[in-house]
Amino acid sequence: MRTFRIFFNTIRTLSFKKICHLLSLVLPHPIFSLLSFHATIQAYTIAQKKFPKTASNNGIGNAFRHALWCCFITMYCSKVSSPEKALDFCKRITDMHEELFPNKPLETKMDLHNNKFGMDYYRELLPGIHRQFFEKSFFIDGLEKKMKDAKVLKSVDDDFDGFLVYLDEK
């Protein structure tokens, strides 16, 4: 229930123009939109349980949450469509999220980087597993292992392709 309250309070903060922008993406793709909403709740809930101190700020839990979010969106949408269409929708919806809820430049870079990491991780696993047989645990376990090599993002010019990134919150 807390998650739904957060979601609806967040939507209420959007301007009319931003709501129209959001609707322009979700209305033409109602099934993808519902699956993405479900993925959002799942990723947020799992990240909060695993990383209660850093999932909602810019720490390593946030990196995990963003990557997991993209893995879940693509996984769920791929079950009803092609992986290519799922990945395209995932990129569009997660990029739009960053546009609608702007952060500081370094935070935005971190979020976009981790979103891309999640989509790339899905692509990495795709050849070995039929898309209908993906499970949440594949991504959770794999991302937890990849977090061991996560890098601290200190500048918008940093390039840590292939690694999760987070901001040092000390």
Describe this structure in words.
With 170 residues, the chain is mainly α. The termini are far apart. Strands 1-2 form a two-stranded parallel sheet. Helix 4 packs across helix 6 and helix 5 (83-100) runs antiparallel to helix 6 (105-125). The chain is built from 7 helices and 2 strands.
What are its keywords?
mainly alpha; 170 residues; two-stranded parallel sheet; 7 helices
- Tally of helical runs: 7
Helix-and-strand structural type:
mainly alpha
Q: How much helix is in the residues? A: 55-70%
Gyration radius, in Å: 15 Å
Summarize the structure.
The chain is mainly α and 170 residues long.
Topology overview:
Layout: H1 2-12, H2 16-26, H3 30-50, H4 60-78, H5 83-100, H6 105-125, H7 136-146, E1 151-152, E2 165-166
Parallel strand pairs: 1-2
Helix pairs in contact: 2-5, 3-4, 4-5, 4-6, 4-7, 5-6
